[in-house]
Amino acid sequence: MNHDSYDNTYIAGILNSVKTIAMVGASANDVRPSYFVLKYLLAKGFSVFPINPGQAGKEILGRMTYARLADIPEPIDMVDIFRAPAAVPGIVDEALRLDPLPKVIWMQLGVRHDEAAARAEAAGIKVVMNRCPKIEYGKLSGEIGWTGVNSGVLSSKKPLMRSGFQSFGVRQK
Predict the structure, then answer these.
(1) Which intervals hold domain CoA-binding (predicted)?
(2) Among 45, 66, 96, 154, which has the highest number of CB atoms less than 10 A from its own CB?
């Protein structure tokens, strides 16, 4: 797969299919990007499990924080990686030991590791690199356009209403 560019249907398919997300590198610091993304994804109805060994056993935004992926008490659909690229191979190895396997490995903005991505894809896991699910959700749902940002997505279709604060959901093309 070409990870330099993603089709909107690929990203929309992922965001519409995942329900549980493990956020590796989640921060309790409310000025860190991972905190904002965690808060946003929770507001959109995703069940997000923060992973941060230094915060394990404590809560971040009301969610119990775990030290490792294997500590999460339920199956995970997506692993969202908020760590430096050098940490990605170990995180992917840990994800590949989960049973069942996650559907998606998502690497945040600035995070890319082609070798680890290839191993995940060989195991049947979809991969997204150098993207933010908060930004992609906002772009594909039309929310980002509310602030005057050109999302590149035009539609004359009535938005699909979902529960939550001003959440139209991600459009499937």
Answers:
(1) 14-111
(2) 66
Task: In whole angstroms, give the CA distance from residue 112 to residue 79.
Answer: 14
Contacts of 137 (CB under 8 A, 6+ apart): 15, 40, 41, 44, 143, 170
| Percent of the chain with pLDDT strictly greater than 90 | 78
Q: What SS3 string covers the chain?
A: CCCCCCCHHHHHHHHHHCCEEEEECCCCCCCCHHHHHHHHHHHCCCEEEEECHHHCCCEECCEECECCHHHCCCCCCEEEECCCHHHHHHHHHHHHCCCCCCCEEEECCCCCCHHHHHHHHHCCCEEECCCCHHHHHHHHHCHHHHHCCCCCCCCCCCCCCCCCCCCCCCCCC
Cβ contact 26:82 at 8 Å = yes
> Sorting pLDDT into bands at 50, 70 and 90, what band is 149?
low
Among residues 34, 39, 9, the alpha carbon closest in space to that of 23 is found at 34
What whole-number distance in Å separates Cα of residue 36 and Cα of residue 73? 24
Contact 12, 171 (CB under 8 A): yes
